[in-house]
């Protein structure tokens, strides 16, 4: 009994040690990645459900490390958030997405809206609105071609401040959407006060919507909610035709997913735009 009792105090297991080491190692590399420009943006089209035309694209961060190779955002975004690096990285993301979008408009492609993921910490920065304003000025992108995707969870603290920030962005002409809708601590009383343009329903509800009765019920309810609130509804994670047909029948406004295209590097996205003209 004496012996087994010893292990009860071992809160720190060798496995945790390995995870901690990997975490630290990634953190060091991530700092360098920002300086060495190892981060890239990929773009995934958002498609108008009715016309089938590309309405915009979501910019998604990619980290391609020279030795470690491709590192998933699911792995490095949480580290970037914990360390605060997400503020610097997030600023780069907005600037890069706006510059790229401006270039495409200058090339003569029909103007599209680029949407960018904004993490809670970044959104809470006191100068966030001014940062967005100055990036739009520097890049010369019309604010109506930028959309910010923010999760419900990043907005539940300091709700009044957050609403004020959203109002200022909206007055500037920037679009705002709630990302991963349905997975966070959403409260309808807040939701109706958020000055937003779109809800993005999380892919966990979209998946198997054509066969899963519960998901179908949830998606139908959220489409109704969005339309009654006068905001558009975007479904992400659309992987097959059956899912697309279901969303079309339910009058979901926009769809995004592998069924249409995977996220693509800027050059490939541009080729797709050129081919579609
Ligand atoms: P998210 O914002 O919900 O982005 C959608 C994720 O779904 C992306 O994963 C996208 O590649 C993936 N996806 C798109 N279509 C499909 C599909 O049909 N099926 C499946 N299974 N997946 C699909 P990704 O690119 O790995 O990004 C993961 C998350 O990392 C994002 O989720 C977002 O929360 C975060 N993230 C990515 N880029 C940024 C960024 O620039 N800033 C911040 N703060 N977070 C970012
Ligand atoms: Ca997103
Ligand atoms: Ca999402
Ligand atoms: Ca997500």
From TrEMBL:
Limits of the EAL domain: 23-277
Signal peptide from the UniProt entry: none
Protein name per Swiss-Prot or TrEMBL: GGDEF domain-containing protein
Classification lineage: Bacteria, Bacillati, Bacillota, Bacilli, Bacillales
Included range, full protein: 445 to 721 of 731
């Amino acid at each position: 009994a004496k012996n087994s009792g010893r292990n009860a105090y071992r809160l720190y297991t060798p496995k945790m040690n390995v995870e901690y080491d990997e975490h630290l190692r990634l953190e060091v590399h991530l700092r360098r990645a920002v300086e060495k420009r190892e981060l890239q943006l990929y773009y995934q089209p958002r498609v108008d459900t009715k016309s089938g035309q590309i309405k915009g694209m979501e910019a998604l961060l990619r980290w391609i490390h020279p030795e470690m190779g491709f590192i998933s955002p699911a792995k490095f975004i949480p580290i970037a958030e914990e360390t605060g690096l997400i503020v610097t990285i997030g600023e780069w993301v907005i600037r890069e997405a706006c510059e790229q979008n401006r270039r495409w408009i200058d090339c003569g492609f029909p103007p599209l809206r680029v949407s960018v993921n904004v993490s809670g910490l970044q959104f809470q920065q006191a100068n966030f609105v001014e940062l967005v304003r100055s990036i739009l000025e520097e890049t010369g992108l019309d604010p109506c071609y930028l959309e910010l995707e923010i999760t419900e969870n990043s907005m539940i603290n300091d709700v009044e401040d957050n609403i004020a920030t959203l109002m200022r962005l909206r007055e500037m002409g920037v679009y705002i959407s709630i990302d991963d809708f349905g997975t966070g601590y959403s409260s309808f009383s807040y939701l109706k006060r958020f000055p937003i343009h779109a809800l993005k329903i999380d892919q966990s509800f979209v998946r198997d919507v054509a066969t899963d009765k519960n998901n179908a019920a949830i998606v139908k309810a959220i489409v109704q909610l969005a339309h009654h609130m006068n905001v558009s509804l975007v479904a992400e994670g659309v992987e097959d035709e059956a899912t697309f047909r279901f969303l079309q029948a339910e009058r979901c406004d926009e769809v995004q997913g592998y069924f249409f295209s995977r996220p693509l590097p800027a050059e490939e996205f541009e080729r797709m735009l050129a081919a579609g003209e």
